Amino acid sequence: MTVANDGVPADEFETDLLRNLAHQRGTTRQSASAQDIYQALALTVRDRLVDRYVKTAATYYETNPRFVYYLSAEYMLGKQLPQNLLYSGLQNQARDALEKLGLDPAELEDLDVEPGLGNGGLGRLAACILDALATEDIPAVGYGIRYDLGIFKQTFEDGAQVERPDDWTFYGNPWEFAAPDDQQPVGFYGKVEDGKWTPDEIVLGEPSHMLVPGYGTQTVNLIRLWRARASRASFDLSRFGEGRYGEAVDAIVRSENISKVLYPDDSTELGRELRLKQQHFLVTCALRDIVRRYRLRNTGWDAFTEKVTIQLNDTHPVMAVAELMRVLLDEEGLDWDRAWLIVRGTFAYTCHTLLPEALETWPVALVERLLPRHMEIIYLINFHFLQEVEQAYPGDTGRLRELSIIQEEPERRVRMAHLAVVGAKAVNGVAELHSKLLRETTLRPFAELWPERFHNVTNGVSPRRFMLIANPRLTGLISSRLGDHDWLRDLDRLSELEPAADDSAFRDQWREVKRANRRDLARYARAVTGVALDPDAMADVMIKRFHEYKRQLLRVMHVITLIHRIRRGETAGLVPRSVIFGGKAAPGYYAAKRIMRLANAVADVVNGDQQLSAYVRMAFLPNYNVSGAELIIPAADLSEQISLAGKEASGTSNMKLALNGALTIGTLDGANVEIRDRVGADNFFLFGLDAGQAVALKQAGYRPRSWYEADWELRETIDFIATIDGGALREVADDLLNRDEYLTLADYRAYIECQDEVAHAWEDRDAWTRMSILNAARSGFFSADRTVRDYGREIWHTPAVPEA
Ligand code: F55
């Protein structure tokens, strides 16, 4: 009998698996479908984690610690099976058991569906933070919405993005526990009389939870996701009796629509009532649950701020400020000052953007109609706040206007970021530069009023998800060098790799790992796109949401420049590259979708031409998601982080890629600045305007056309865009010439020259490998574990509670 690290003999796992197959799936080994086996396997792994969770819960109950409650409208958790197998130490038993039963683990992993309950960086960050909280033994619960349909599935038809629904729970989700007996009522509409709200519509929030295990610790925390259910009274019996069956269920459909679909926009969807409903739904359910949990071990309100800290992931859950006030005033009978003190001591707010158009505001008229009592409370909060402003700046109406929670022109709107800053004890940006720019620009008047409220907490990523799970080869190599696996919980230990950069045998091994990963990626790219990538070519990767400010267009313009150079025979200094794109565009974001079509059109040109594809092949991998990231990142040699400086709050693919040994070509934007500081300027390809220069250039009156006229190679590139596919994408060229909001033309020459340097550096493969190793060795700072320790020290003040 083999006994593995957690003491579970392999045949016991097999017994449990077969028992779950029978008792949970009601079937036998002989007639079980692959889905049956997958579900039974998941349940077997889940059972072990539940045992751990029960102990964690007991420890928390006993110690009554301070909890972090993370409120986020989005989570991109990634596949649960590989993570839970690894974290529970059951990998070997599971493999042995499956082997004995003649089953293929990889095939079963294919059936594990990733919950795509987020759009991009913000949602993935939330998942990394939950992973790190559990790993750091910090008592925490994540709250979110259990969307029936997650982020859409992306395919391309004739080069254009096509969106299909992501019905991720079609076959059931074995990782979650539903708790229909724990439903919470959530009110909407109605009227307020004497400060008492009588809603017109009540929707029920039904929670289900999933387990969030820590790595290398016993702690298992929870994520609690809410779905909307109609109350039983919503079924209209009289209509049904009249034979109007459709209308009889109208109210049910309307209620349950609240958690039907994730908004697939990563910049604000303005004024959508359903979205505001989602936000209110989430915060009401979460706060009820938080209060319920608090009351398990505490009475009264005196200890609330000591036991509860609530982190607001961007403005989407900021209605919680008004809702907690409402609960304290209207339901608990506290007076204003006491209630406000509690609220102000409870919340902290993370901002994830600098783009003014992404700062959420809601029409006062809409809030008034949907949440009349909340609107009253927001007015009152604003009234008290503006009195404070008036004291700080007597007679300064300009200050009042710019700070007010209510924007007056052109239409009265509630500024959610203002409500957040006013209602929170702490506000943070997500990278040094971002936090500085928030203080100096976007939130400047607030930073002047309350400088002590502003913090920076630089983002981080899960080393488990993006090293251990995604890149087992590199993880194995690093562990063999460092002597153990513990660096996965203490990522600063990657610095011990530094000397290995000068060890030529190690460099060979490192290169071999990269090559094997590129081979895997090439196989995948071939299967999904038909494009044959060369595993020896440089994997040049840009993976992120499609957004104009991120400048995927600049990336494509480099490829077009290469096309012209190759056709002219200027191939000296060129190196073979696999240009890889991954990313989705918001379905209604026309300009981003045009750029996608251009990328696909250019890909067809290079892939279909032997002369060109000797140097550059291009694959746009559809449906980029966490699983896609796990495949692409380990193979990457070059990480494209080329946003216009001052626009990207942080970026996190930059961190994942550097950790996996990719070198960055990037601007001084977001966390690129800190990555470069750490890996060293010699190991980073910097180009382009900095944030100050970008602003200055715009202020001086930027004329893109003059850049076009001054650079013949740029001209050739833009003319190519104007004429490709019979001029179908001429608008892209026109927009560049007439507007170029993100200064693409201004950064073009610097980017091209920097890419030439990249090619040159790639030619000395040994020196490149050295830089690659140093990138990984010096990126330990970008662990999400460090991020939550920073939050813990600066904002939450949460001691760790390891299991006794
Ligand atoms: C989603 C919905 C709305 Cl309404 C607005 C924004 C988003 C969203 O997904 N934002 C987002 O992903 N922001 C990103 O957050 C990352 C984590 O902090 C940053 O790294 C990245 O720079 C930022 O763009």
TrEMBL record:
Q: What is this protein called?
A: Alpha-1,4 glucan phosphorylase
Q: Which GO terms describe its molecular function?
A: glycogen phosphorylase activity; pyridoxal phosphate binding
What family does the database annotate? Belongs to the glycogen phosphorylase family.
Q: What is its EC number?
A: 2.4.1.1
Highest taxon of the source? Bacteria
* Keyword Transferase part of the UniProt annotation: yes
Which keywords are on file for this protein?
A: Allosteric enzyme, Carbohydrate metabolism, Cytoplasm, Glycosyltransferase, Pyridoxal phosphate, Transferase
* A Pfam family it matches: Phosphorylase
Question: What SUPFAM superfamilies is this protein classified in?
Answer: UDP-Glycosyltransferase/glycogen phosphorylase
Which is one Gene Ontology cellular component term of this protein? cytoplasm
Species of origin? Winogradskya consettensis
Q: Where in the cell is it found?
A: Cytoplasm
